[in-house]
Design goal:
The chain is mainly alpha-helical and about 120 residues long. Helix content is about 60%, strand content about 0%. It has a domain of about 70 residues. The chain is built from four helices and no strands.
Length: about 120
């Protein structure tokens, strides 16, 4: 008798007895959930755009990067990528706010709101 059969899905009488004695069922493992690579890419790009939005010295470009990062983060969140997309969303919002404040300062010359001790 062949001790190691080629068919790995067949159950022996010992397996049946063990299942019956312990009220157990043998189940197949569930596959890992599929990750949407496009949505994950959107989330990563939104993080990069959010970081660049408050680190580049060009306020108008910063606003555009922040808006782009915001849109990509929202698209990624809608496709199920929560953690990375939330980080991109927060960084993009911070980038937009900082860029708008610096743009306001650039065009008005009023820096009293961010340098109160001068």
């Amino acid at each position: 008798m062949n001790q190691f059969p080629n068919d790995f899905n067949h159950e022996t009488s010992q397996d049946q007895e063990f299942q019956n004695d312990n009220n157990l069922e043998i189940s197949t493992p569930t596959p890992a959930p599929k990750v949407d690579k496009v949505a994950e890419s959107f989330a990563i790009i939104s993080i990069v755009a959010g970081i660049l939005a408050f680190s580049l010295p060009v306020p108008i470009l910063d606003i555009l990067l922040g808006i782009g990062g915001l849109v990509l983060a929202i698209l990624a969140r809608n496709k199920g990528i929560k953690g990375l997309a939330t980080a991109g969303l927060i960084l993009s919002i911070i980038g937009i706010v900082v860029a708008v404040l610096f743009t306001y300062n650039y065009f008005t010359g009023d820096s009293s709101w961010w340098m109160p001790f001068n």
